[in-house]
Amino acid sequence: MIAVSRISHPKDIGTLIEAVKISEAEITLLCGDVNINESFFNDLPNSKVIMISGDDDDVHVIKVARRRNALIDGKIVEVFGIKIGGIGAVSTSLDSTSLTLAGGNVDILMTHYPPYGCLDRIPPLLIPSGLKTVRSVVDSLKPSLVLIGHGTKPAIGFCGNAVAVSMPHTIAIIDSFKPRRIRFIPLTGEHS
Q1: Is the pTM of this model over 0.90?
Q2: How far apart are CA 170 and CA 184, in angstroms?
Q3: pLDDT (0 to 100) of residue 55
Q4: Where are the alpha helices (H) located in the chain, listed in sequence order?
Q5: CATH C-level class of 2-186
């Protein structure tokens, strides 16, 4: 499985497509702020693409993801036996409420904004920027893995009992939900 966020440069999109193909990732998780189009989906016919909205996503990107049934803001989907929930940036509170009302557990929670207390410290003062509504979803749904799109740097930590991964401008290759099995590939294109 591969996860990524905050990439827009065509070179980085190409690197992502190449990484998905080389790793034979069955699932590609886009955690917002990813400038994709229809051809992106055509380039990855062997990987299920799942996406949440980001605060910098163009409306065209959201429409493409909806048309391809890839957008999961406020939804829980099951892919290859893995339950994935999504909290996008467009309606974070509404998405959080929808997931909490759905109940049960998820294996992976994708969220654009970080949960409160989870990889949410903004330098240089290290002030927490995470959202309490997102943290309540983590506490309620008890995911094994929390993917954070709007982080300040690539990082791995914990959010309660869940492994938390932030991957802005970076590709995260996730072989399991264990921190030692997660690797990062830095991207070199221009960042927005």
Answers
A1: yes
A2: 6
A3: 94
A4: 10-23, 38-43, 59-67, 92-102, 132-141
A5: alpha beta
